[in-house]
């Protein structure tokens, strides 16, 4: 038979009253720690690194159209200027050629003899045949007569007996002016170079101006080439 436990009323049971609440608190704290340890740990999220992105529209991706080439512009052709009306020029009578000024080295005549030669009765045949010649031929014959008479008038020289105005070059006829730069005349069986200029009157029967220059002796070796003879053969 068990022995009853006798509790003494003299000693209060205070230790038991404080132990129970503290034990319960410790268990609760341990339980909370266990829960926290068992819960999954969230991994830290790395900070985002910004990336610069440039958005380009589809229109911007299209190549720019090439600039149009400038169109060539042709300047309009200027209209031709109207031609001024010009009144017809009335015909002007050709003046009589003036006497040619003396050229260097040329001797100018102060007297003229051709008209007197033509008027001489001894030369009636020449005078009668003169109108049958062309105008330029009349001028040439008139000036050749004048040239011979001017050379015959030179003092202290033998009179010339033949003259060819075109022996070394063509004669130039301009209106009533004759220029013979390549003439030749014969004196005492020898030929000499001669140049002269002669201006005839309007009637082609007289001379108004004459100048000449006697040149060097023509060598005999050049006679045949220029149709120069030692006598009157070929001068008929």
Shape: elongated
Average the pLDDT over all residues and give the rounded result: 74
Low-pLDDT residue intervals, each spanning 5 or more residues: 1-20, 48-61, 70-75, 80-100
The chain-level structural class is alpha+beta
Number of strands: 6
Radius of gyration: 72 Å
Q: Quote the distance from N terminus to C terminus.
A: 217 Å
How does the major sheet shape up? 6 strands, antiparallel
**Share of residues in helices:** 25-40%
Q: Helix segment count?
A: 5
Which series of helices and strands comes N to C? Answer: HHEHHHEEEEE
Word description of this protein:
The protein has 236 residues and is an alpha+beta fold. The chain has a domain at 107-226. Helix content is 25%, strand content 17%. The protein has 5 helices and 6 strands, in the order ααβαααβββββ. Strands 1, 2, 3, 4, 5 and 6 form a 6-stranded antiparallel β-sheet that branches. The protein is elongated. The termini are far apart. Residues 1-20, 48-61, 70-75 and 80-100 have low confidence and may be disordered.
List keywords for this structure.
236 residues, alpha+beta, 6-stranded antiparallel β-sheet, DUF930, DUF930 domain-containing protein
Summarize the structure.
Helix content is 25%, strand content 17%. The chain has 236 residues and is α+β, with helices and mostly antiparallel strands.
What layout of secondary structure does this protein have?
Blueprint: H1 14-38, H2 58-61, E1 107-108, H3 114-119, H4 124-129, H5 135-152, E2 162-164, E3 172-174, E4 177-187, E5 190-200, E6 207-217
Antiparallel strand pairs: 1-6, 2-4, 3-4, 4-5, 5-6
